[in-house]
Amino acid sequence: MHAAQRRDALLELLRTSRGPVSATALARRFSVSRQIIVGDIALLRAGGADIASTPRGYVIPAQEDTGLTCTLVCRHTAADLERELNLMVDNGCTVLDVVVEHPVYGQLSGQLQLSSRYDVAEFIRRVEKEQATPLSALTGGVHLHRLRCPDEAACRRVCQALDEAGFLVKE
Protein backbone atom coordinates (compact mmCIF):
# COMPACT_ATOMS: atom_id res chain seq x y z
CA MET A 1 0.00 0.00 0.00
CA HIS A 2 1.38 3.39 -0.99
CA ALA A 3 1.51 6.27 1.50
CA ALA A 4 -1.37 8.17 -0.12
CA GLN A 5 -3.54 5.03 -0.09
CA ARG A 6 -2.67 4.43 3.56
CA ARG A 7 -3.64 7.99 4.49
CA ASP A 8 -6.97 7.61 2.64
CA ALA A 9 -7.61 4.31 4.46
CA LEU A 10 -6.55 5.87 7.77
CA LEU A 11 -8.97 8.76 7.33
CA GLU A 12 -11.81 6.38 6.43
CA LEU A 13 -11.04 4.21 9.46
CA LEU A 14 -11.20 7.26 11.75
CA ARG A 15 -14.47 8.40 10.14
CA THR A 16 -16.12 5.04 10.80
CA SER A 17 -14.58 4.38 14.22
CA ARG A 18 -16.86 4.48 17.25
CA GLY A 19 -14.22 6.14 19.40
CA PRO A 20 -10.57 7.18 19.61
CA VAL A 21 -7.96 4.93 18.00
CA SER A 22 -4.40 4.98 19.31
CA ALA A 23 -1.42 5.54 17.04
CA THR A 24 -0.09 2.15 18.17
CA ALA A 25 -3.29 0.38 17.09
CA LEU A 26 -3.24 2.21 13.76
CA ALA A 27 0.41 1.28 13.23
CA ARG A 28 -0.43 -2.39 13.81
CA ARG A 29 -3.42 -2.16 11.47
CA PHE A 30 -1.36 -0.68 8.63
CA SER A 31 1.89 -2.56 9.39
CA VAL A 32 3.95 0.59 9.80
CA SER A 33 5.65 2.30 12.73
CA ARG A 34 3.85 4.58 15.16
CA GLN A 35 6.00 7.46 13.86
CA ILE A 36 4.68 6.89 10.33
CA ILE A 37 1.11 7.17 11.65
CA VAL A 38 1.94 10.40 13.52
CA GLY A 39 3.37 11.80 10.28
CA ASP A 40 0.32 10.65 8.31
CA ILE A 41 -1.99 12.38 10.80
CA ALA A 42 0.06 15.58 10.47
CA LEU A 43 -0.21 15.44 6.68
CA LEU A 44 -3.96 14.74 6.82
CA ARG A 45 -4.43 17.71 9.16
CA ALA A 46 -2.35 19.92 6.86
CA GLY A 47 -4.68 18.84 4.07
CA GLY A 48 -7.69 20.05 6.04
CA ALA A 49 -8.85 16.90 7.87
CA ASP A 50 -10.35 17.64 11.28
CA ILE A 51 -8.57 15.04 13.43
CA ALA A 52 -8.34 15.55 17.19
CA SER A 53 -5.74 13.98 19.45
CA THR A 54 -7.23 12.74 22.69
CA PRO A 55 -5.64 10.89 25.61
CA ARG A 56 -7.05 7.65 24.14
CA GLY A 57 -6.06 8.25 20.53
CA TYR A 58 -7.11 10.01 17.35
CA VAL A 59 -10.73 10.83 16.61
CA ILE A 60 -12.70 12.86 14.11
CA PRO A 61 -14.88 15.12 16.28
CA ALA A 62 -18.63 14.78 15.87
CA GLN A 63 -20.06 17.54 13.72
CA GLU A 64 -23.51 17.26 15.21
CA ASP A 65 -25.21 20.43 16.34
CA THR A 66 -27.09 18.61 19.06
CA GLY A 67 -26.67 19.85 22.56
CA LEU A 68 -25.13 22.89 24.06
CA THR A 69 -21.48 23.85 24.45
CA CYS A 70 -20.65 25.69 27.64
CA THR A 71 -17.40 26.91 29.13
CA LEU A 72 -16.79 26.71 32.87
CA VAL A 73 -13.98 28.12 34.99
CA CYS A 74 -12.79 25.70 37.66
CA ARG A 75 -10.16 25.54 40.37
CA HIS A 76 -8.96 22.52 42.33
CA THR A 77 -5.84 20.57 43.22
CA ALA A 78 -4.45 17.71 41.15
CA ALA A 79 -5.86 15.33 43.77
CA ASP A 80 -9.40 16.41 42.80
CA LEU A 81 -8.97 15.99 39.03
CA GLU A 82 -10.79 12.66 38.77
CA ARG A 83 -13.64 13.82 41.02
CA GLU A 84 -14.14 16.97 38.92
CA LEU A 85 -14.21 15.08 35.62
CA ASN A 86 -16.60 12.44 37.00
CA LEU A 87 -19.00 15.16 38.16
CA MET A 88 -19.13 16.41 34.58
CA VAL A 89 -19.66 13.07 32.84
CA ASP A 90 -22.06 11.84 35.55
CA ASN A 91 -24.32 14.74 34.65
CA GLY A 92 -24.47 13.72 31.00
CA CYS A 93 -21.86 16.02 29.52
CA THR A 94 -18.75 15.40 27.43
CA VAL A 95 -15.58 17.17 28.57
CA LEU A 96 -14.20 18.45 25.28
CA ASP A 97 -10.99 20.05 26.51
CA VAL A 98 -9.09 21.87 29.23
CA VAL A 99 -7.60 25.33 28.73
CA VAL A 100 -5.20 27.39 30.86
CA GLU A 101 -3.90 30.91 30.36
CA HIS A 102 -0.11 30.74 30.67
CA PRO A 103 1.74 34.01 31.42
CA VAL A 104 4.38 33.35 28.72
CA TYR A 105 2.78 31.07 26.13
CA GLY A 106 -0.77 32.41 26.29
CA GLN A 107 -3.62 29.95 25.92
CA LEU A 108 -2.65 26.28 26.22
CA SER A 109 -5.22 23.57 25.68
CA GLY A 110 -5.51 19.82 25.81
CA GLN A 111 -8.14 17.78 23.99
CA LEU A 112 -9.96 15.41 26.35
CA GLN A 113 -13.18 14.09 24.73
CA LEU A 114 -14.29 12.34 27.95
CA SER A 115 -17.90 11.12 28.00
CA SER A 116 -18.02 8.41 30.66
CA ARG A 117 -16.48 7.21 33.89
CA TYR A 118 -14.54 4.69 31.82
CA ASP A 119 -13.05 7.53 29.74
CA VAL A 120 -12.16 9.42 32.92
CA ALA A 121 -10.58 6.33 34.54
CA GLU A 122 -8.48 5.68 31.41
CA PHE A 123 -7.38 9.33 31.33
CA ILE A 124 -6.39 9.25 35.02
CA ARG A 125 -4.58 5.92 34.49
CA ARG A 126 -2.58 7.46 31.66
CA VAL A 127 -1.77 10.60 33.67
CA GLU A 128 -0.48 8.42 36.50
CA LYS A 129 1.42 6.03 34.21
CA GLU A 130 3.18 8.89 32.41
CA GLN A 131 3.59 10.84 35.66
CA ALA A 132 2.10 13.79 33.78
CA THR A 133 1.29 17.06 35.47
CA PRO A 134 -2.18 18.45 34.71
CA LEU A 135 -2.20 21.75 32.78
CA SER A 136 -4.01 23.38 35.70
CA ALA A 137 -0.85 22.99 37.80
CA LEU A 138 0.65 25.78 35.68
CA THR A 139 -1.99 28.24 36.88
CA GLY A 140 -2.50 27.38 40.54
CA GLY A 141 -5.36 25.03 39.69
CA VAL A 142 -7.39 27.55 37.66
CA HIS A 143 -8.54 26.28 34.27
CA LEU A 144 -11.40 26.27 31.78
CA HIS A 145 -13.36 23.31 30.48
CA ARG A 146 -15.51 23.32 27.37
CA LEU A 147 -18.37 20.87 27.79
CA ARG A 148 -20.90 19.54 25.34
CA CYS A 149 -24.14 19.02 27.25
CA PRO A 150 -27.33 17.48 25.87
CA ASP A 151 -29.38 20.47 27.10
CA GLU A 152 -29.42 23.45 29.47
CA ALA A 153 -30.65 21.29 32.34
CA ALA A 154 -27.49 19.16 32.15
CA CYS A 155 -25.34 22.29 32.09
CA ARG A 156 -27.13 23.60 35.18
CA ARG A 157 -26.66 20.23 36.94
CA VAL A 158 -22.93 20.27 36.22
CA CYS A 159 -22.60 23.85 37.45
CA GLN A 160 -24.47 23.00 40.65
CA ALA A 161 -22.40 19.84 41.27
CA LEU A 162 -19.11 21.68 40.67
CA ASP A 163 -20.23 24.58 42.86
CA GLU A 164 -21.20 22.22 45.70
CA ALA A 165 -17.79 20.52 45.42
CA GLY A 166 -16.09 23.93 45.61
CA PHE A 167 -14.59 23.60 42.10
CA LEU A 168 -16.58 26.25 40.21
CA VAL A 169 -15.07 29.75 40.00
CA LYS A 170 -17.86 32.30 39.80
CA GLU A 171 -15.91 35.56 39.70
Strand content: 15-25%
Calculate Rg over CA atoms: 17 Å
Strand order of the largest sheet: 3-6-4-5
At CATH level 3, the topology of the largest domain is Histidine-containing Protein, Chain: A
- Poorly predicted runs: none
Give the overall shape, derived from the CA principal axes: elongated
* Name of the CATH superfamily of the largest domain: 3H domain
CATH class of the largest domain: Alpha Beta
Largest sheet properties:
4 strands, antiparallel
Assign a percent range to the helix content: 40-55%
**Number of helical regions:** 6
Could you give the count of β-strands?
A: 6
Structural domain tally: 2
Mean pLDDT rating: 91
Distance between the termini: 56 Å
CATH architectural arrangement of the largest domain: 2-Layer Sandwich
Q: Structural class of the secondary structure composition?
A: alpha+beta
Secondary-structure element sequence?
HHHEEEHEEHEH
InterPro entries: 3H_dom_sf (IPR035922), 3H_domain (IPR004173), HTH_11 (IPR013196), NadR (IPR026043), WH-like_DNA-bd_sf (IPR036388), WH_DNA-bd_sf (IPR036390)
Keywords: Metal-binding, Nickel
GO molecular function, one term: metal ion binding
Pfam family, one: 3H
Protein traits:
single chain, 171 residues, alpha+beta, Arc Repressor Mutant, subunit A, Histidine-containing Protein, Chain: A, 2 domains, four-stranded antiparallel β-sheet, two-stranded antiparallel ribbon
Describe this structure in words.
GO terms for molecular function: metal ion binding. This is Transcriptional repressor for DNA biosynthesis. Residues 73-168 form the 3H domain. Ni(2+) binds at residues 76, 84, 143, 145. This protein is α+β, with helices and mostly antiparallel strands and 171 residues long. The protein is built from 6 helices and 6 strands. It has helices at residues 3-16, 23-30, 34-46, 81-90, 117-130, 152-164; strands spanning 52-54, 57-59, 68-75, 94-102, 106-114, 142-149. Helix 1 crosses helix 3 (34-46), helix 2 packs across helix 3 and helix 4 (81-90) runs antiparallel to helix 5. The longest helix is centred in the first third of the chain and has 14 residues, at 3-16. The radius of gyration is 17 Å and the shape is elongated.
